[in-house]
Design a protein that fits this description.
- This protein is an alpha/beta fold.
- Helix content is 26%, strand content 22%.
- The strands form 3 sheets. The chain has a 6-stranded mixed beta sheet with strand order 5-4-1-12-13-14, covered by helices on one side.
- The two termini are 15 Å apart.
- This is Manganese-dependent ADP-ribose/CDP-alcohol diphosphatase.
Length: 311
């Protein structure tokens, strides 16, 4: 469709996981470039600003790494947020597990300017009348981020003890297939948030809006590894599949990225991590939004992806 202008466009980046420490490796040996990831973000912001056409930016979570020294957590989060703030427009954040390893929700959410009711981190916004963005809190029911005696922490720990027999709850050892998602670094969407999501999708349907769902944790097994998916992704997708308004689901968390189209024709795109870019390489992009497609234009390790759907 040459010549057709997008309705709007927005920048995307995920899993910066900055820390002022030497390079390291993931649990399975994938190199991680903790200091370089901040340079990736700086180049991303510079590129987005140079385009002069992006309405906003979405950061898909994990701005700081678990290995960041805890006495530096607050300053490091503020440092990364400051880099995002250099974008000439709004930036929408969501929380990831690494953010919550560093700071509790009550400290983190104000820094990320996430609109919050009772510490929850889900919200929606509508950049144009035709589209609505829904940002889910994938760590609503979670063993990290809430106070230790919080009902959501206790619910998560009970859930993990039933689903994962390992002493180390981040180990999938002995778990088979999709059961491998029952790990402490994942989480679930709670009942209240599920009801809120249902209400938002009802409203979007009435307004004839197309919806883009954003969550740190992926929502479709076809787009991600079995260890990286939301605990109750199936329940969330059951709500989403009741409506025709959701066209695309975007996520981070699984650093290698992925893309799938589910049984209802919804595209799922998981973004490649900024953290795993060797020096001099990048992983960020922007999405042009049309009536009948979202077109991701990737830079470096982030692959460009066309996501077409029925308008």
């Amino acid at each position: 469709m040459p010549g057709k202008q997008p309705l709007f466009s927005f920048g995307v980046i995920s899993d910066v996981q900055y820390a002022d420490i030497p390079d390291g490796h993931s649990f399975i040996g994938v190199p991680r470039y903790y200091r370089h990831s901040l340079l990736v973000l700086q180049r991303a912001v510079k590129t987005w600003n140079a385009h002069k056409k992006h309405k906003f930016v979405v950061n898909f979570g994990d701005i700081v790494d678990v290995n960041c020294p805890k006495d530096q957590s607050l300053n490091v989060v503020m440092k990364v947020v400051d880099e995002f703030e250099k974008f000439n427009g709004p930036v929408y954040h969501m929380i990831g597990n690494h953010c919550l390893y560093n700071l509790p929700r009550d400290k983190l959410l104000p820094l990320l300017k996430i609109p919050s009711i009772h510490g929850h981190a889900y919200y929606d916004f509508s950049p144009t009348p035709e589209y609505r963005f829904v940002v889910l809190d994938g760590y609503d029911i979670s063993a990290i981020g809430w106070p230790q005696d919080h009902p959501n922490t206790l619910e998560a720990l009970k859930f993990l003890s039933e689903k994962n027999p390992n002493t180390e709850k981040n180990s999938p050892s002995g778990l088979v297939g999709l059961e491998r998602r029952f790990l402490m670094f994942n989480g679930a969407v709670g009942k209240e948030q599920m009801e809120w999501l249902d209400g938002v999708l009802q409203d979007a349907t009435k307004l004839k809006q197309k919806v883009v769902v954003c969550c740190h944790l992926p929502l479709d097994p076809g787009a991600t590894s079995q260890e990286a998916i939301l605990w109750n992704y199936n329940e969330v997708m059951d709500v989403i599949h009741r409506y025709n308004c959701v066209k695309v689901c975007l996520a981070g968390h699984d650093h290698q990225g992925g893309h799938s189209v589910d049984t209802h024709g919804i595209h799922h795109r998981v973004f490649e991590a900024a953290l795993e870019c060797p020096p001099g390489t990048d992983a960020f992009g922007y999405i042009d939004v049309y009536d009948n497609r979202l077109s991701l234009v990737g830079t470096g390790r982030m692959e460009s992806t066309d996501m077409c759907f029925d308008p």
